[in-house]
Amino acid sequence: MGVKSVENMDRLFWLGRYSERVYTTLKLYGQKFDSMIEEGTGGYDEFCRSLDIPNVYDSAAEFRRCYPFGADDPNSIYSNLIRAYDNAIELREEIGSDTLSYIQMAVYELKKAAGSNAPMIEFQAILDDILAFWGIVDDMIEDESTRNIIKVGKRVERIDLYGRLGVDRTAMAREVHRLTGRIPRTGLRYQKQVVDRLNELVEQPQLDYPAIVREIERIL
Amino acid sequence: MDMMESLDLFERTDVVNSLLARYGVKFGIYKNNTFHEQLFPFDAIPRILSVQEFEYLEKGLRQRVDALNLFLWDIYNKKHILRDKVIPEEFIYASSGYLAQCEGIQPPKAIYSHISGIDLVQGKDSEWYILEDNLRVPSGASYPMIARELCRRSSPRTFQAISVADNRAYADLLKRTLEHVNTGGLTVVYTPGRYNAAYFEHSYLAEKMRVPLVTCSDLEVENDRLYFKDYSGKKEQVGAVYRRVSDDFLDPMNFRQDSLIGVPHIFDVYRKGNVALVNAPGNGVADDKGIYYFVPKMIEYYLEQEPILHNAPTYLPYYRQDMEYVLEHFDSLVLKDVAEAGGYGVTFGSSMTAGQKEEFLRLIKSEPRRFIAQEVIDFCDLPILEKGGKVDRKADLRAFVLSGEETVVWKSGLTRFSRNPDSFIVNSSQGGGFKDTWVLNQ
Question: With a CB-CB cutoff of 8 Å, which residues 38-97 of chain A face chain B?
């Protein structure tokens, strides 16, 4: 299309970020849910701490219900998916109806899962939708900068989450290197020195996770 | 229809509806001041128009829209029709759609209504009647467009067996119409934003035309030109704006000052001929329900032709004779408030209580210009699929007429139906559904 508004650049970036946030937190929640099958209670406070979200849940049952599905909980997976949708719905002409449809389907699937007593089975469909969304972004969107902005949003979010979760160096370095190669091809105005600093940080003998999180948050 | 029974389109209605949901084919509605997105229920049984029927409608619709465009030019310029007393002046100047700011403006190529949505019904006598002309921001073309795409996917056998005019090139037709009046620069679709009832359509048409979808914050006026602001700060001139923002909110410097969705001075750029606004501001004067009464007279006046398509029999309480008729036949008429749209402000005389009737009669007598009365047309029912069977429901047709290099009637249309067996109201905002409209090739 050639011309892109500031708002759409911003929406593309956040669409990438929120789609990644839903994908990763859904997988993390799945692991936690699984461990709670036998344990019954406990452990969710640590989960909240690791993601740097407030533990507003009174019980394990409330956590299991509200963290994935809570419409009034701004940190819930549902709220993050709706934010992805809110950005996607305003990008139809930019990304195309086919691409948008995968985010729309993820919303339907998450709403459907809310009534299930085995939500992890239902979540598989949402993970599939998000993976398909990323796939179709690559396959169907002609405009290179549009594709790159979504992907950069996804990388930024992943580095942020990996920093909070303390993942290993290999995984972190891979994401930083992918970001480094991609971000100059977006047309976004970004902080070059932040990218340089992130590359230095992943070379340190001990990964300074708080510093990585601080840096990634000021990349744009 | 018998032939269609043997094909598999009808049994795949649910599949098509689930695909429509997947693609976010929705409309917005405000209930208790809260915005909701709703799916627009689709019924797979199409309205079918034969070649002959479409040709007849096409002729009549082109005639009507051509006359309406001539009327709009006349009203905002020479006013011959008022001088010749074909229409009383008060019907123009008292109309909420009349904009004094549009006086003397020459829109590009003298076209005012580029996209006209004309609502028709077919009576049980097979006669077609015009119910309403929508010349401001008529919506609805996107629904049959996408439904056809999905129906073809769901039941290719149906379209192999029945030769139907392809309606999916509407976006190309629309783009050509916009390009025809483009004064130089980009063509854009200008939306009030995602909380508008027709936002799906705005974004879908922008996608299909491959033009930017913009909001007020993306546009800027500088040196009597309109520009689209790129993310890099680069400005690109805009030559045609398919605006889906109503006149009132278009430009806070010229219309409602409290508009937060308008572009300051966009109307000044238009006035100077440096951008085409599609449809033109001020068109509301021609689709006023009171002016509707005069459209057949406009056809005779401007084109010196007999109207091909007829209005529903309509009475203007403004005229003494019509007022007498309305008072005498109140119970058999439908009363419409000229200021309302979307199925609102429509009341059936037969459904009023004695108290309501008394109050309404008082209102009509004190504000005769505000209402029109129409005979209730017993319009044709169309079958819809319900609970595994078929039931009949009231349905209308919105035909889309595009005025560019020539006046073209889109070979399709939005057929809306009431889901309530006792209702004549087909609007989506009132719970109605939609059908595709097929024009047969032979």
Answer: 86, 89-90, 92-94, 96-97
Asked if A89 lies within 8 A of B203 by C-beta distance, the reply is: yes
**Inter-chain CB proximity A104 and B204 less than 8 Å:** no
Its ipTM equals 0.80
Domain identity same for B212 and B124: yes
A1·B211 Cβ contact <8 A: yes
Among B324, B340, B375, which residue terminates a domain?
A: B375
Can you give the pTM of this predicted structure?
0.89
Cβ-count burial of B384 within 10 angstroms (0-12 exposed, 13-18 middle, 19+ buried)? Answer: buried
* B160 and B16 both lie in a single domain: yes
Chain B interface, mutation test: which of A15, A86, A93, A95, most B Cβ atoms within 10 Å?
A93
C-alpha to C-alpha distance for B98 and B252, rounded to whole angstroms = 17
- List, for residues B400-431, the tens digit of each pLDDT value: 999 999 999 999 999 999 988 877 777 776 77
Task: Report the CATH number at residue B346.
Answer: 3.30.1490.270
Q: Where do the DSSP E strands lie in B223-320?
A: 225-229, 235-243, 276-278, 310-311, 314-315
Angle at B179 between CA B178 and CA B181, to 5 degrees: 75
Count how many domains chain B has: 2
Residues B137 and B214 in one domain: yes
For residue A148, report the phi and psi dihedrals to the nearest 5 degrees: -70, -35
Q: How many CB pairs under 8 A join A and B?
A: 68
* B256 and B322 belong to one structural domain: no
* Structural domain that includes position B132: 2-306+379-439
For residue A1, is pLDDT > 60? no
Same domain, B302 and B318: no
- B311-361 tens-digit pLDDT: 999 999 999 999 999 999 999 999 998 877 666 788 889 989 999 999 999
